[in-house]
Write a structure and sequence with these properties.
- The chain is mostly helical.
- Helices cover 83% and strands 0% of the residues.
- It has 14 helices and no strands.
- It is globular.
């Protein structure tokens, strides 16, 4: 599941690395567009997370009829939500001047933004199918299919960005077109696997076009909405930072994109593990196995602390080398290396807060953690970053310091809440 999440991030990583060879302004445009795109991705993530939670509970409590119903209604909702996001972002692509980015960045961003907006159409239902397969303990086939989309994306980037094999060089537009085509191919491949797999076929709906069960729709929306808000809050913080980074020029924005790409790629470790933990906690809660639940959560926290310590060491020790693999601009390289030191400091806390939140989600505790993170990020972390960047005079790195402080606070508060709930559930009843 970690590798599955990495496969989606690798699409953006491939675009960033290959566009970085075209120019600094183009790289800044990727930063600007992706900051908006991943906010929509985060909103959609609550939907397929809700499918995962419902299917895992049904699997743990041996209720096969709920499994097929969750898939059918979840896929319908994901198709509709993907269409909504695509149309909304297509409309927004013509008013990118609202965000007051450097003029040269805004001018380059429109067409690339529209290609990514179209990619919501296949991406949202594809990730819903992926969550369904993972909740049934079948993550590997979907993983290999999604890694195949990464390879396809890199090949299409090579052809379309630089104009190889007789094709015209499309630059930034080529990267967007390649991502859209790769995601379309990924959706088709995953859907065919789900329908043709002997292990999956018994759990598929008997009729895809049966009447809608509104109780299932209400369940998925009621559970998915706060999950969407949980995940999107963190991406919204980085989106806000990206927009604010634009006030410091294209060089700062490009450096922020590289640091954010490295941070997001490392973040797929705790995110993938947290999705697995949500499913396992759902299984345990469905079977009322609270001792196993505590052990799984502790194991996940220890695993992610060790993993993020290693990635943090890489960012500190090889920050300049990582930045140089994206761009030849030495000013961008130096600024990125400084940003990556801050990333190394906060990402361990980021991993802990994501793991804690996913465990709470598996226990259906979604509303209070959402409000905790909203207050922490937007009433504390972002304002602190603005003060440090614009009033103290630290510049772009001040925004990263604000985010880092917010991650630390979130990790402490959510872990404390998780401990209290586990203690309450494990207490003997009189």
């Amino acid at each position: 599941m970690i590798a599955g999440q990495l496969s989606q991030m690798l699409l953006g990583l491939a675009d960033t690395m290959m566009i970085g060879r075209v120019g600094t302004v183009e790289l800044a445009a990727v930063a600007f567009v992706n900051s908006l795109f991943f906010l929509g991705f985060a909103l959609a993530s609550g939907l397929f997370a809700a499918v995962s939670v419902r299917v895992s509970h049904a699997f743990g409590s041996a209720r096969p009829e709920s499994i097929s119903g969750s898939l059918r209604h979840g896929l319908l909702l994901s198709l509709l939500f993907g269409l909504f996001l695509s149309l909304a972002y297509l409309g927004l692509s013509f008013r990118l001047d609202w965000f007051r980015q450097p003029p040269e960045v805004t001018e380059l961003s429109g067409s690339y933004f529209r290609w990514l907006a179209l990619s919501y159409l296949p991406m949202v239902p594809m990730l819903t199918l992926k969550s369904f397969s993972e909740a049934l303990n079948k993550p590997w086939p979907v993983l290999w299919l999604m890694l195949g989309t990464v390879v396809l994306n890199v090949w299409l980037n090579y052809l379309l960005i630089f104009g190889n094999a007789g094709l015209p060089a499309m630059g930034l537009d080529g990267a967007g077109c390649a991502t859209f085509l790769a995601r379309c191919a990924g959706f088709v491949a995953v859907f065919v696997y789900i329908c043709k797999s002997p292990q999956m076929r018994p759990r598929l709906p008997a009729r895809w076009c049966a009447p809608i069960d509104w109780s299932v729709v209400r369940y998925l929306v009621k559970l998915g909405l706060p999950i969407s808000l949980q995940v999107s809050l963190e991406f919204a913080v980085f989106a806000a930072c990206s927009l604010l980074m634009g006030q410091f020029g294209s060089t700062t924005l490009a450096a922020h994109q590289i640091a954010f790409t490295c941070s997001s790629t490392a973040f797929m470790l705790p995110l993938g593990l947290s999705m697995a933990l949500t499913i396992r906690v759902g299984h345990a809660v469905g079977a009322q196995q609270w001792v196993s639940c505590r052990r799984m959560i502790l194991g996940a926290l220890l695993m992610i602390t060790g993993a993020m310590s290693l990635t943090g060491a890489v960012f500190v020790g090889f920050g300049s080398e990582l930045a140089a693999s994206f761009t030849l601009d030495q000013d961008v390289v130096r600024m990125t290396a400084a940003f990556l030191v801050v990333v190394a400091i906060y990402q361990g806390f980021d991993g802990i807060q994501v793991i804690s939140m996913s465990a709470l989600r598996g226990m259906h505790d979604v509303y209070v953690p959402t409000w905790i993170n909203f207050g922490n990020f937007f009433l504390f972390a972002v304002p602190l970053g603005i003060v440090l960047a614009f009033f103290v005079g630290l510049g772009g790195i001040g925004l990263w310091y604000g985010v880092a402080t917010g991650m630390c606070v979130s990790a402490i508060v959510l872990t404390t809440r998780l401990r209290l709930i586990l203690r309450r559930q494990s207490a003997p009843t009189s």
